[in-house]
Amino acid sequence: MSTAPWTSADKDQWFKAQTIKRSYEREVVRKIEALSGQYVVESYGVLSIDPKKYPLFLVSSKNWDANKKTVLITGGVHGYETSGVHGALAFMKNEAHPYEEIFNFVCAPCVSPWAYETINRWNPHALDPNRNFVPGSPAEECVSLLRALEPYQSSILAHFDLHETTDTDNTVFRPALEARDAKPQPFSPIPDGFYTVGDSDHPLPEFEKAIIDSVRKVTHIAPADEQGCIIGEPIAQEGVIHYPLKRLSLCAGLSNAPFTTTTEVYPDSPRVNDQICIDAQVAAVRGGLDYLKSKGILSAGR
To answer: What is the fold of 8-294?
Structure first.
């Protein structure tokens, strides 16, 4: 671990060590553009590191109804969390249409395209976007998305932020965070299975259970460790932990949506493959929406 936090020169050195490992244009942009027949597809900005290569996209309902509440889906806040991106796209392509009778949809499938290509948690400036969803954020990924969502903020009923927890969280990204900040980071074992992160300030046990029960049909749910925790946090119920979403400036706290969740798929489990991980993300959204439908929760009041 470094004895002092990284300087600008250290961050630049880190950036220069990153390499392109996959194609945002081929793997993501083409899938987004293919949705233009079903939805409104629009660019809400670009990344300054390469504006032509990294456009940012929103996918939204064509037949927008101001009398309906809005469901927000975000993926790829951490670019290396692959099923978050492709789960968001798969839900919009294959599952969203029947729900449009009740809801409007807005989806940002890949918030951090440079990080997608370099398989990174951080953006090019060694910032974690998922700790920077605040006004005036130093992360342009966050600033661009917050600005793009301003017209929808008052109508957002539910927000599904699709993530993964990978082995590299401990082998790569935790050590990098320790080095960058010159501060020890607590170690927690990576849980084998799916879990969700709800809002500790507004827990939603029935909503969270509905998500877990839906995902259970697709893949296994992460057990608690010997201390009754998942990633160092005590479980609220099977497969559910809580964070203070707004106080940590997390993506799932960017709105005042009364129903929010951060999904966490474990892609390194020997019990899953890429398609199962994508299907788990889709099942999580579907489970949450089915709960809202079954309870008649179609307004934004808590």
So the answer is: Aminopeptidase (3.40.630)
